[in-house]
Amino acid sequence: MAELSLVSGSVGLITLQSPPVNALSAAVRRGIVDTMQRAVSDPKVRSVVICGQNGVFCGGADIREFGSTMTGPPLVPMIHAIEAADKPVVAAIEGSALGGGLELALGCHYRISHAKARLGLPEVTLGLLPAAGGSQRLPRLIGVPAALDLITTGRHVTAAEALKLGFVDQVTDQNTVEAAVQFALSVVGQSLESRRISSLPCPCPVDVDALFEGVMQRVRQSARGAIAPVACVQAVRAAATLPYAQGMQREQELMATLFTSGQARALQYCFFSQRAVSRWSMPSGARWDTCKPKPVTKAAVIGLGTMGRGITVALAQAGLSVVAVETQPQQLKAGQRAVSDMLERAAQRLGVPSAVQGVRYSQELQAVADAHLVIEAVFEDMALKEQLFKQLSSICKPDTLLCTNTSALDIDHLASQTHRPQQVVGMHFFAPAHVMKLLEVVYGPRSAPQAVATAMALGKRMGKVSVAVGNCRGFVGNRMLMPYVEEALFLLEEGATPETVDHALEEFGFPMGVFRMSDLSGLDVGWRVRKAAGLVEPGKMSRVRQGRRYSPLGDLLCEQGRFGQKTGQGWYLYETPGSREARPDPWLHSFLEEYRARQGLVSRRIDSQEVQERCLYALINEGFNILQESIAAGPEDIDMIYVFGYGWPRHRGGPMFYASQVGLPRVLQRLEHYQQLHPDVPHLQPSSLLWRLVSSGSPPIHRWREVIRKPHSAL
Ligand SMILES: CC/C=C\C=C\CC(=O)SCCNC(=O)CCNC(=O)[C@H](O)C(C)(C)COP(=O)(O)OP(=O)(O)OC[C@H]1O[C@@H](n2cnc3c(N)ncnc32)[C@H](O)[C@@H]1OP(=O)(O)O
């Protein structure tokens, strides 16, 4: 809806009314068209101000409408009518002016913004382009390079930056609507010719072709297969090279392709899933809306290795008072220096006061005694953690939350070392912990819902996408990674090279293939885990362990001290230890050939399709098992874990969404096919939930929960 009122005697004030963000739903568009017509034809109205209710100008088109047939007046003619009005129209921007919201403002003759407002054209992040004239108006107003930056990245800018770039006319820290009304009164009678952006020429760069070629190359490289950024460049190019009307036509053509694409659907699914995961639930029925988090102002971190340092930074930046404990004096000193450096650098970058003063350091575990929440980030060793939890149980106050940053160990076992198992949860951060957006909050069977609520709330405060998951080996992310990595190793045994596997996965959209990733994180990490699981038999080449197919390839490399980037050799070769550029390693290729020969394995050509299917479907299949066991409450939880923690390409929506797009019968059929070829690989055995979904007619992903909840015998 939109409402028109007369203010200050002659200003028609149009207020958009559609909580929470005044998105441009059919009703709002109808309201704008109607109120504008009334304002233009009312002789008492000499100028118009458009604002949004509740301190938000407009969050753009209503994304929820995209999945259905669009009704109501379209945006483009609505914005043209505003621009064509013969009375000055001023946008009063508070809160957000994003996407269609900013395009609406660009159709106005003037834009007044509150200092705290954020503006931008984030359509690209939803798989779209600014197709209500934004791709044509913005370059005309601020020039091609700046418009390309905003449109291809979708980044939100502050009002100050928008003023500097030239797409707002005035910034105020007072009442924005009042400022806009005063402004509207002051411009009555002035010519509007130069204020109609669509009539302005686009400032054309000297060498258009070179500029766009360069930009297109950069965009294609960083887009990793996403089509919207490329279409955004093409649309801006149209603005720079064609008259406005033709540019608009091009904008519409490009949008038509994007609008119905699978990528747009995936990105919009991610938008809503990112928000949905904060509405967590546990199998016990406890939920986000029935549990209040406990206030946390004092936190403690134990262990100042890489993870502990990042966690300390993340907590301090969220405004908590932190005590960081490290018992090794050298490590304490190095950790303190690293944390302070990270905090200082971040403060400089963001132009905010440094949080260095918020962190205390100690060698004594006793220093955590008055913390509201403790996160242990010591070495991944169960005995060490058991001992620590016993000590924490007697040092900390009875209501202190005890959290572990383990990436795979049993949360419930750790809880059983304390007198307060209900106060124990996992907070699984991803390295670097102050940068990576994902946090897995892991509850055990005895974790109190309030403990989960508190960890989730803390995650939100740190700016993380926090996902609540149940306790099992590897939780959600690492558990699904195991079959993915194993399939990659099996492919090497069968004839692939690290290069061919990585190429296929990078072609799919991962920033790094599995072997480059393994070199980066260190081969010794997985080796330790396999040793703890009793899988490693030094020097042995047997390919069946614990009753199933096993590849000792990773172990054999580790036995040679090839731990990846840090040792200069792993699955690839590096110029020096620590350098990042992975080069094919002839030694590794001969090693693989010898290995196959000694094992009597016949090497065959393996194509990208097989790599992608075997690695990804094995991972997805484990996702179905996880859903079946209620370790994750829904597919969105798994998908957000993969998008924010494991580099799954966002434009593919996450593994479960991807499976839904490929088609569940197809995923099932390919798993069955590979399982027949490799009967000794249990993770290729299709999950019973996948079977149930297929036999329930493969419902759309938002209806999977209904099948998951259905008792098995009902089928
Ligand atoms: C034919 C088509 C022609 C033209 C197309 C135009 C393209 C567009 O305009 S696409 C939309 C572009 N806009 C955006 O991408 C903005 C999206 N929203 C946001 O970034 C944020 O929501 C925010 C506006 C900055 C507000 O942030 P915050 O205060 O943190 O609240 P949230 O939790 O994010 O959102 C609250 C609630 O609102 C829902 N929502 C937000 N924006 C939209 C929207 N544009 N359409 C529909 N719904 C929206 C959001 O999902 C939340 O609801 P949940 O129920 O929690 O999901």
From TrEMBL:
<keyword id="KW-0511">Multifunctional enzyme</keyword>
<dbReference type="InterPro" id="IPR006108">
    <property type="entry name" value="3HC_DH_C"/>
</dbReference>
<dbReference type="InterPro" id="IPR029045">
    <property type="entry name" value="ClpP/crotonase-like_dom_sf"/>
</dbReference>
<keyword id="KW-0443">Lipid metabolism</keyword>
<dbReference type="GO" id="GO:0006635">
    <property type="term" value="P:fatty acid beta-oxidation"/>
</dbReference>
<dbReference type="InterPro" id="IPR036291">
    <property type="entry name" value="NAD(P)-bd_dom_sf"/>
</dbReference>
<dbReference type="GO" id="GO:0004165">
    <property type="term" value="F:delta(3)-delta(2)-enoyl-CoA isomerase activity"/>
</dbReference>
<feature type="domain" description="3-hydroxyacyl-CoA dehydrogenase C-terminal">
    <location>
        <begin position="474"/>
        <end position="574"/>
    </location>
</feature>
<feature type="domain" description="3-hydroxyacyl-CoA dehydrogenase C-terminal">
    <location>
        <begin position="613"/>
        <end position="697"/>
    </location>
</feature>
<dbReference type="GO" id="GO:0003857">
    <property type="term" value="F:(3S)-3-hydroxyacyl-CoA dehydrogenase (NAD+) activity"/>
</dbReference>
<keyword id="KW-0520">NAD</keyword>
<dbReference type="InterPro" id="IPR018376">
    <property type="entry name" value="Enoyl-CoA_hyd/isom_CS"/>
</dbReference>
<protein>
    <recommendedName>
        <fullName>Peroxisomal bifunctional enzyme</fullName>
        <ecNumber>1.1.1.35</ecNumber>
        <ecNumber>4.2.1.17</ecNumber>
        <ecNumber>5.3.3.8</ecNumber>
    </recommendedName>
</protein>
<dbReference type="InterPro" id="IPR008927">
    <property type="entry name" value="6-PGluconate_DH-like_C_sf"/>
</dbReference>
<comment type="similarity">
    <text>Belongs to the enoyl-CoA hydratase/isomerase family.</text>
</comment>
<dbReference type="GO" id="GO:0004300">
    <property type="term" value="F:enoyl-CoA hydratase activity"/>
</dbReference>
<comment type="pathway">
    <text>Lipid metabolism; fatty acid beta-oxidation.</text>
</comment>
<feature type="domain" description="3-hydroxyacyl-CoA dehydrogenase NAD binding">
    <location>
        <begin position="298"/>
        <end position="471"/>
    </location>
</feature>
<dbReference type="GO" id="GO:0070403">
    <property type="term" value="F:NAD+ binding"/>
</dbReference>
<dbReference type="InterPro" id="IPR006176">
    <property type="entry name" value="3-OHacyl-CoA_DH_NAD-bd"/>
</dbReference>
<comment type="similarity">
    <text>In the N-terminal section; belongs to the enoyl-CoA hydratase/isomerase family.</text>
</comment>
<dbReference type="Pfam" id="PF02737">
    <property type="entry name" value="3HCDH_N"/>
</dbReference>
<dbReference type="GO" id="GO:0005777">
    <property type="term" value="C:peroxisome"/>
</dbReference>
<keyword id="KW-0560">Oxidoreductase</keyword>
<dbReference type="Pfam" id="PF00725">
    <property type="entry name" value="3HCDH"/>
</dbReference>
<keyword id="KW-0276">Fatty acid metabolism</keyword>
<dbReference type="InterPro" id="IPR006180">
    <property type="entry name" value="3-OHacyl-CoA_DH_CS"/>
</dbReference>
<keyword id="KW-0413">Isomerase</keyword>
<dbReference type="Pfam" id="PF00378">
    <property type="entry name" value="ECH_1"/>
</dbReference>
<comment type="subunit">
    <text>Monomer.</text>
</comment>
<keyword id="KW-0456">Lyase</keyword>
<dbReference type="InterPro" id="IPR001753">
    <property type="entry name" value="Enoyl-CoA_hydra/iso"/>
</dbReference>
<keyword id="KW-0576">Peroxisome</keyword>
